[in-house]
Amino acid sequence: MPSWSVLPRRALAAFAAAALALLALLAVDAAPAEAVRPPGIPSTATAQSELNQLTVAAESHGSTYDRDLFPHWKSVSGTGSCTARQYILKRDGQNVVTSDGCQPTSGNWQSDFDNTWTTTVSNATIDHVVALSEAWASGAWAWTTAERQAFANDINSPQLWIATTSANSSKSDYDPAEWMPTNSSVRCDYVKAWTHVKYLYDLTVDSAEKSAIQSHLTAYCGSGGGTPTNCNGSNTTAGTITEGGTISRAIALSCTGSASSTSSVTVSITHPYYGDIQVQLRAPDGTVRTIQASSSSTGNFGSRTYSVNLSSEARSGTWTLLVTDTYSGGSTGTFNNWSLSI
């Protein structure tokens, strides 16, 4: 094992397991089916526990920081000749094509910070979630060069994220008290990742930083940093769906933060021609999304579950399901119930 791969403190215990996971991933060597966030993002409860254990201290030694003290984008053991940057672009991108030297030449990458997709390799930068200068001022000034190199090239923790050039520049070396992603749906995972990296490497937090992290855990991950509550609901009021008519059923939710990009809607309807039925979801802000369009398909509607990206919406408010029988002269149906999990 090269000398730079020596990991500080708590990271040592996790390295062996991470290496096995890495070998398994390389064996599959398949592009992800959808956007991928870095590995190792902890549960909210774990992040809360880790935050509680972090040492609060003022930042120091900032004037002596030099980026060259963190040798980065070096070849990573177990990836052939790939640098950490090349490896992350291949692992977390879609349909990535690489040259013989591991350098991606084409692909599709999502910048979660600003919810932007790019097909331009040069626009898919790699961001250190805990910036190198932030790490330096939080304790890395006392590390060896090998430890700093391991930190800068850590592909196994949630330290390295794909970000567009503009998102990376906007984030700069700010901590969560100074900057948060514009994409609100990633903010919970972002602060959990930040907390975990600081915990993993025994880095300190200053008082404003810790206060902001706690506030963000509460706002975006649930009250008191726990699992979001009251973010599931149902409406079981049955009704007849007339030919060419629309019925609506509402669910009122009261909870913090933004809805998930993988929210789910389950609808139960009795109707012999499910293609006659159009299903729409109206958000609390009035935005209407069609989650099933009408078609010529036949067969009973039954119970169907839809995955819906609601990340641009706040959870709290009244959500309304609109069910329309788009065909006149066919058959009537019965709305049974629907449920929403966001």
From TrEMBL:
Residues 222-342 form the P/Homo B domain. GO terms for biological process: proteolysis. PROSITE patterns: P_HOMO_B, TAT. Pfam families: GmrSD_C, P_proprotein. GO terms for molecular function: serine-type endopeptidase activity. InterPro entries: Galactose-bd-like_sf (IPR008979), GmrSD_C (IPR011089), P_dom (IPR002884), TAT_signal (IPR006311). Residues 1-35 form the signal peptide. Keywords: Hydrolase, Protease, Signal. This is P/Homo B domain-containing protein. It comes from Glycomyces sambucus.
